[in-house]
UniProtKB/TrEMBL annotation:
Protein name (database record): Veratrol--corrinoid protein metyltransferase
Domain Uroporphyrinogen decarboxylase (URO-D): 137-305
Any Pfam family hit: URO-D
Organism domain of life: Bacteria
Family matches, as InterPro entries: Methanogen_methyltrans, UROD/MetE-like_sf, Uroporphyrinogen_deCOase
SUPFAM superfamilies membership: UROD/MetE-like (SSF51726)
Protein's organism: Acetobacterium wieringae
Transmembrane annotation, as ranges: none
Length: 338
């Protein structure tokens, strides 16, 4: 098959619920430029980066080699211990004098090396669950959600004003090609809170930000790791177009059957490190990729993304196996929609 669309044009077709020319392959291990940026605007700082830092609310994020330099809130250093006292502790950032035009220009140049291949997709900092848990930690934060729901909701409304400010300016000055909501609300096995509470507390507030994005006809990306399929229906209802990383703990075939191209699945693949490691059957790896395409690629709505289950990205054997995965996915990509 001869492809006529660039990888970005083809990718954005999927994000808009349209039929692509070929299956997009989203991977940082292949030779191509990334499909999308998934970046924070510089006004938020670099706290989620490999060096950690302090987020706009004052939460310290730390990192380390053992977590592959992903940033996490500093353990046992919570800024809020009693949710009923949040008004004394949580203060909205002051961005007086911030130059949004210069920031948009610099961020686009920083994050998009090839605008013909990479979509400019940015965060509006609407990840209210993660921000709240960053204030209190999981134990106290989850207890507060169940025991002091009214106080939590008032705090979330205060936080939402900041998210709306970021989102409005992002849309006006940055002109992004996609907007992403990064809010991990599930573990490997189940959501952290019930779908009922999720719909009551978080969904209406997400919607206020996402409505702004939908009004601009910009695709909405929802990042939620783990088994979060119980939360997906309400997110589709408020406008989510693409779900990543769509991990294999979820019933991905069932989700695809229910929503079709309305909700694009970005992910869908994982090759578990075998007990024989570092001995790996290359054909077994490639067959796993083929099986994923067979299950999730038909009729569109699928972006392949996945790798070996190892965070040791620089191990030569890990790189070799991930290379097989990307190679097989790229080979299949243009054979599905003939």
């Amino acid at each position: 098959m001869t492809a006529h669309l660039t990888q970005k044009e083809n990718f954005l077709r999927v994000a808009r619920g349209e039929m692509p020319e070929y299956v997009p392959v989203s991977s940082y291990f292949g030779p191509n430029a990334p499909l999308l940026t998934m970046a924070d605007p510089c006004i938020l700082g670099s706290f989620r980066g490999p060096g950690g830092g302090v987020d706009p609310w004052g939460v310290t994020f730390v990192t380390g080699e053992e977590i592959n330099f992903a940033a996490l809130p500093k353990p046992n250093d919570f800024i809020l211990t009693d949710v009923t006292k949040w008004r004394d502790v949580i203060k909205a950032p002051d961005y007086t004098g911030f130059d949004w035009e210069a920031a948009a220009r610099d961020d686009r140049k920083k994050y998009v090396q090839d605008p013909d291949q990479t979509a400019f997709v940015l965060s509006g900092f609407a990840d209210l669950f993660q921000q709240f848990i960053g204030f209190m930690g999981f134990t106290e934060g989850l207890c507060a959600i169940y025991e002091e729901q009214e106080e939590v909701e008032e705090l979330l409304d205060y936080m939402l004003e900041h998210s709306l400010y970021i989102t409005k300016n992002l849309l006006h000055f940055y002109k992004p090609e996609g907007y992403y909501l990064l809010d991990d609300t599930a573990s490997k096995l189940n959501p952290f809170i019930s779908p009922k509470l999720f719909e009551e507390i978080f969904v209406p507030r997400y919607k206020k930000c996402l409505d702004l994005v939908r009004d601009e006809n910009i695709p909405i990306f929802y990042h939620n790791c783990g088994r979060c399929e119980d939360l997906i229906p309400s997110m589709v209802d408020i406008g989510v177009n693409v779900w990543d990383p769509a991990q294999v703990e979820n019933d991905l075939v069932g989700v695809k059957q229910k929503y079709g191209a309305k909700l694009a699945i970005n992910g869908g693949f994982e090759f578990r490190m075998p007990s024989t490691w570092p001995v790996v059957d290359e054909e077994e790896v490639r067959e796993a990729v083929r099986n994923t395409f067979d299950r999730l690629a038909p009729n569109g709505g699928f972006i392949f993304n996945g790798m070996l289950t190892s965070l040791d990205y620089f191990d030569p054997k890990v790189q070799e196996v991930n290379g097989w995965i990307v190679d097989e996915a790229n080979r299949l990509s243009k054979t599905v929609y003939k």
